[in-house]
TrEMBL record:
Residue ranges that the Swiss-Prot or TrEMBL entry lists as coiled coil: 7-34
InterPro entries to which the protein is assigned, alphabetical: DNA-repair_Swi5
Similarity comment: Belongs to the SWI5/SAE3 family.
Domain of life assignment: Eukaryota
Keywords attached to this entry: Coiled coil, DNA damage, DNA repair
Keyword Kinase applies: no
GO biological process assignments: meiotic DNA recombinase assembly involved in reciprocal meiotic recombination; meiotic joint molecule formation
Protein name according to UniProt: DNA repair protein
Record organism: Mycena rosella
Record bears the keyword DNA damage: yes
Annotated GO CC locations: Swi5-Sfr1 complex; Swi5-Swi2 complex
Any Pfam family matching the protein: Swi5
Length: 83
């Protein structure tokens, strides 16, 4: 069972959270919609992942044509694991 939180601590916590929200809103920018920014970011991530998947498919086909491994193609193209 949780220990009860005093009303003063609860009010202080609420005030701290409201201050944090205001600070983050200022950092984000006035009149900016965080949800719209998040949706755009997710859309861009999907595009990136599709491009990366297509690239990996082509690298796999190149490795097959060259009768080598995908790892060797990555090394030849100087691709890092983080790419």
């Amino acid at each position: 069972m949780h220990a009860p939180i005093s009303a003063k601590k609860q009010e202080a916590r609420i005030a701290a959270l409201q201050a944090e929200v205001e600070s983050l809103q200022k950092e984000l920018g006035e009149n900016k919609d965080a949800e719209a920014i998040t949706k755009k970011h997710i859309k861009l991530l999907h595009c990136y992942n599709e491009a990366k998947d297509a690239t990996q498919l082509l690298i796999g086909k190149l490795a097959t044509l060259k009768e080598t491994t995908v790892r060797q193609i990555h090394d030849e193209l100087d691709l890092r694991d983080s790419d």
